[in-house]
Structures are given as C-alpha cells and as structure tokens.
TrEMBL record:
Belongs to the enoyl-CoA hydratase/isomerase family. The keyword Lyase applies. This is G3253 protein. Signal peptide: none annotated. Keywords: Lyase. It comes from Coccomyxa viridis. The chain holds residues 67 to 338 of 338 of the full protein. It catalyses: 2-succinylbenzoyl-CoA + H(+) = 1,4-dihydroxy-2-naphthoyl-CoA + H2O. It comes from the Eukaryota.
Length: 272
C-alpha cells in the first residue's frame, strides 16, 4: 500500500494511497494495546470523514499499530464517572458515534486485526464490513470483568453475526477466542499468517475496488436497512435519491422550477 501522510494526529496514523483508492487508519497507542480515549475516537472520526469525502478513496482499512493488538477497547485509565474523559474533562462514550459512522460509511471499511481485539475493540471490528485477522488475533468482550457493557450494536450486531446463544456466551463468560474460533463462529472473514496480514488485506481491498462503487454503497445500505429500522431505510432511501438526481426525469423537475414553467413528466415511462 502506497502511503501519503495527511495531517498531524496524536493517537492515530492516517495514510492514503492515492491511485490505489485505499485509506488506512491506524490506532497508534501500542503501549496501551491500542486502547482508545476520547481524543483517539475524535481523530478516527475526523479521518473517516476525510476518507468518505475523498472521491479517490474506495476502501478504508482500520487497524492497530504493532502486532500485539488491534484495539483493547476503552482506556480504563481515563474512565471516569459517566464515560471516558479527555482534556476537556467531559465524560464521553464517543466510540458509539464512531460505530454509527462506520455503519453509515458508504464505502467498505475493512478491519485488519493482529493481536487483541477485545472489549470496545472487538465491537469496532464487528462494525467493519469485513475483518481479516492474523493467526495471532484474539477476540472477546471483557466489559463484564471491568464493569462495562455495550447494549447497543455491541450486543445486537454480535448476535446477528454469531447467533444468540454464542453472543450470550461471549458476553456472559467474557472469555477470549482464537482467530480460528472467531472465523468458525462467523465473527470475522478470514485468518492468515501474521506476516501475510497486510498483503492479504490489500488483495481483498483491490478486489473490492475493481467493483462498481454504486453497487457496493447500495448493497451496504440494503444489508443495513433490514436491521437498522428507520435509520436503515433513510440510508437506503438516500441512495435512491442520489440515483434519481442523475436521471433526466429527476432533472426535469428541477429545470422546470428554475425556468418557472410546469414540469413535463409525460415523456418518462411508467414501468410495470
Ligand atoms: C488486551 C489485554 C488482554 C492484553 O494483555 P497483555 O498481557 O498482552 O498486555 P497487558 O500487560 O495487560 O497490557 C499492556 C499495557 O497496556 C495497558 C495495560 O494496563 C498495560 O499497561 P502497563 O502495565 O504496561 O502500564 N492496557 C491494555 N489495555 C488497556 C485498556 N483497555 N485500558 C487501559 N490500559 C490498557 C489486556 O491488556 C486487557 O485485558 N486489557 C483490558 C481490556 C479491557 O477491559 N478493555 C475495556 C473493555 S470495556 C470497553 O472497551 C467499552 C465498553 O464495554 C463499552 C463502551 C465503550 C468501551
């Protein structure tokens, strides 16, 4: 992956391979097993927005620095009463906003996991569209051990991925699982030797990038819609509007308004 640095960031690295179509966001706190604090999430969200807005980017990789962890969840050292506390002293659970951002991202987000993906880190990889793991990866929820839980996507998305019984096991016992076990239960997509992780992830990205961007964004919205209620339908509906705005029929209405004349939709077919 060719790398171009974008902007000054404290907790993460952001790289874009222009020409390649890939953006890569790396949580860069390896000494904390890439635990996130409010600033980490704010930076990731900022770069996710940049990647969404950049027409040259078709796929986003989310990963962790080093080989020991993808992400170990919320940084317990900055957890206060009411949430995780940053420099502004405001307690936050802004990782929930990031989960929604990944869910609504109209471009595929790929989790590239080496080492631990636990707690909120496992939930982040679950929110990604596809997860490629190294054979040293370890997955699980530690929340019940440290007095925490995610009763939103962290529970419901997990149950949809691995089934109700397995999701209850993962949350209630708070065990850790190998990459192979995670693959077998449907928590991730693929397991490769650690030294092939980057290469394999790039192969999946390039394969995705060869396909129609509109097909991908509508498919993602459709897969979300069945699960996300009104928010899911809004996302799918927004794609219908996007496509309609590109048609002569959609443009006739706009042009007629601007030309101060009644619209003439008579030439447009009424499909059966
Ligand atoms: C991840 C794990 C299993 C790794 O174990 P190991 O043995 O490889 O490393 P070690 O020595 O535990 O960790 C290395 C350093 O990273 C810090 C540790 O405290 C240690 O620091 P030093 O002693 O060297 O100073 N570290 C690791 N994870 C951290 C964390 N999450 N917060 C703060 N410091 C952390 C092992 O480290 C582990 O079990 N970590 C804790 C995992 C955890 O409980 N995460 C929070 C779950 S709750 C959550 O994420 C959440 C949620 O449930 C709902 C909403 C939002 C967030």
């Amino acid at each position: 992956i060719a790398i171009v640095h974008k902007e000054r960031l404290k907790d993460i690295k952001y790289e874009k391979g222009h020409g390649e179509g890939i953006a890569k966001i790396t949580i860069n706190r390896p000494e904390k097993r890439n635990a996130f604090r409010p600033e980490t999430i704010e930076e990731i969200m900022r770069c996710m927005t940049d990647a969404r807005d950049d027409p040259d980017i078709g796929v986003i990789i989310l990963t962790g620095a080093g080989t020991q962890a993808f992400c170990s969840g919320g940084d317990q050292a900055v957890r206060g009463e009411g949430g995780y506390v940053g420099p502004d002293r405001v307690p936050r659970l802004n990782v929930l906003d990031l989960q929604v951002q990944i869910r609504r991202m109209p471009k595929p987000v790929i989790a590239m996991v080496a080492g631990y993906a636990v707690g909120g880190g496992n939930i982040l990889q679950m929110m990604c569209d596809i997860t490629i793991a190294a054979d040293n990866a370890v997955f699980g929820q530690t929340g019940p051990k440290v007095g925490s839980f995610d009763a939103g996507y962290g529970s419901t998305q997990m149950a949809r991925l691995v089934g109700q019984k397995k999701a209850r096991e993962i949350w209630f016992l708070a065990r850790l699982y190998t990459a192979q076990q995670a693959l077998e239960m449907g928590l991730i997509n693929n397991v490769v030797p650690l030294d092939r992780l980057e290469e394999e992830t790039a192969v999946w990205c390039r394969e995705i990038l060869r396909n129609s961007p509109t097909a991908l964004r509508v498919l993602k919205a459709a897969l979300n819609a069945a699960e996300d209620g009104q928010a899911g339908l809004q996302e799918l509906g927004g794609n219908a509007t996007l496509l309609f705005y590109q048609t002569p029929e959609g443009n006739e209405g706009r042009k007629a308004y601007l030309e101060k004349r009644p619209p003439d939709f008579s030439k447009f077919p009424r499909f059966p």
